[in-house]
Design goal:
Layout: H1 3-22, H2 29-39, E1 47-52, E2 60-64, H3 75-90, E3 97-103, H4 109-114, H5 120-141, E4 146-147, E5 149-157, E6 163-172, E7 174-177, E8 183-185, H6 191-209, H7 213-225, E9 232-234, H8 243-254, E10 264-268, E11 273-279, E12 286-292, H9 293-301, E13 312-316, H10 323-338, H11 350-355, H12 358-365, E14 381-387, E15 391-395, H13 396-402, H14 414-421
């Protein structure tokens, strides 16, 4: 771990118990377990795998087991890579996409925060956004029987880590006519329509969710003072078509952490302050702020979503269960519209995205092999697995010594070796390689 990662963990180690005294909502085994996992992420004393170059014997990698939690500053980037690869595979190469951001008035943030530890309000938030999208497309096309799609990712914090609920949506610029089966291309959407319809749908949702007099008064106030509707920002740019440019776009806008490790400038334990920098959303300039340790921890842990929460959701044409069927509909719809044929060499990457190892992701994203020997350039081999409480459960050299006729070194993959060696292991060990 880097020095700054240790600094982030030190803040939690020093003040987590003190923080819970003032924030009773976080007094639970769920949050304690997450903080404990993050604190021990990649700790070699908890367990590790060892890779070694068997060609020259001069290079090795010892990698601690990771916590695999999105809250972890190290594993969060790995989760982001997995999300990006999955979403890339779900985008149809034959059509254009644009990036839509749906925001809500800050007065409603406190309502979301109050119900932050339940899935209910967030589930309804996704659903109302989906209802809004279908309504807009039906209005623009003047057709009720259409099929649309969307991929949504929720964010609950702004760039400085403060609570700010909003949705990022990848929107296909078109839909399928349910009657004729043709693809209807939609080059643009009226901004006035987006703003007014989004406000209308969202306020209706909040009115049904909270029927208190306070909510009724707030909704009346919002309607009176915000006649132009809520912000629904539709990026003018068409998303890049596949490849590295698309991955960078998705990582930048959909999975950027509110505060990354390198942004922490200073931590003063005695004064109980943390100084960090962030990029302002409006000016795009770097801003520096200093806040109390309690506020810093609060901004970090509020990013932890409820247990088993599904952050990325697919709707309509992008629904996971009907993805292949929907793709055939889109291809047939494009043919009927203007005779567009899909690229015969286009590969469906849906399964491949899930099967890529972390090493393969690094090769794709960083263009370097984390298991390449720095001396001879050969690929290092898995030689040892050690787990706390169980000791060494896999040792390649002992296996080779016991075998009179040793098998080839690469008879099975690293994943298969680990899976076989860790059978019955309650820790659920998962290997993640360093960047």
């Amino acid at each position: 771990m880097t020095k700054k990662t240790n600094l982030f963990l030190k803040i939690f180690a020093d003040f987590w118990d003190h923080f819970k005294i003032f924030r009773a909502n976080y007094v639970s085994k769920y949050f304690d377990d997450i903080v404990k996992k993050v604190a021990s992420c990649a700790d070699l004393q908890e367990g590790f795998v060892r890779y070694q170059c068997l060609h020259c014997g001069r290079d090795e990698r010892v990698i601690g087991f990771t916590c695999k939690h999105a809250f972890c500053l190290r594993c969060g980037s790995i989760k982001a890579m997995q999300f990006v690869e999955e979403i890339k595979a779900k985008l149809y190469p034959e059509i254009n996409y644009r990036h839509l951001t749906l925001t809500v008035h800050e007065e409603f943030w406190k309502v979301f925060y109050k119900h932050h530890f339940s899935n209910e309000i967030f589930d309804q938030f996704y659903q109302v956004a989906w209802d809004f999208i279908r309504d807009v497309f039906q209005t623009v096309t003047h057709k009720m029987n259409i099929e649309v799609g969307a991929i949504m990712v929720i964010h609950v914090t702004g760039r400085d880590g403060s609570y700010n609920v909003h949705l990022h949506i990848l929107l296909p610029m078109g839909c399928i006519d349910g009657t004729s089966g043709k693809w209807i291309d939609i080059p643009r959407l009226p901004y006035n329509l987006l703003h007014h319809r989004w406000q209308e749908h969202f306020l209706k949702m909040m009115k049904e969710f909270d029927q208190s007099d306070w909510m009724k008064a707030l909704i009346h106030k919002i309607k009176k003072h915000y006649r132009k509707g809520f912000v629904a920002n539709l990026d003018e740019r068409i998303l890049p078509k596949g490849g590295g440019r698309l991955a960078k776009y998705l990582a930048k806008y959909l999975f950027r952490p509110s505060i990354s490790v390198k942004r922490i400038i200073e931590y003063d334990k005695d004064k109980e302050t943390v100084e960090f920098e962030y990029q302002d959303h409006q000016t795009h300039k770097m801003e520096v702020t200093k806040i109390s340790v309690m506020d810093f921890i609060g901004r970090m842990v509020q990013q932890i979503m409820p247990k088993k929460f599904q952050r990325v959701r697919y709707f309509g044409l992008h629904a996971t269960k009907t993805w292949k069927k929907s793709r055939r509909k889109i291809i047939n719809g494009l043919k009927r519209m203007m005779g567009i044929e899909p690229d015969p060499n286009e590969k469906v990457l849906l399964k491949q995205a899930r099967q890529l190892s972390h090493r393969e992701k690094i090769l794709d994203w960083r263009k370097r092999d984390p298991l390449k020997c720095k001396h001879c350039g050969c690929t290092m081999e898995l030689v040892e697995i050690w787990i706390k409480g169980r000791g060494t459960i896999f040792d390649l050299f002992k296996i080779l010594k016991r075998s009179a006729d040793p098998p080839p070194i690469r008879t099975v993959t690293e994943k298969e070796k680990i899976k076989d060696a860790c059978k019955g292991n309650c820790l659920g060990v998962q290997l993640e390689l360093p960047f």
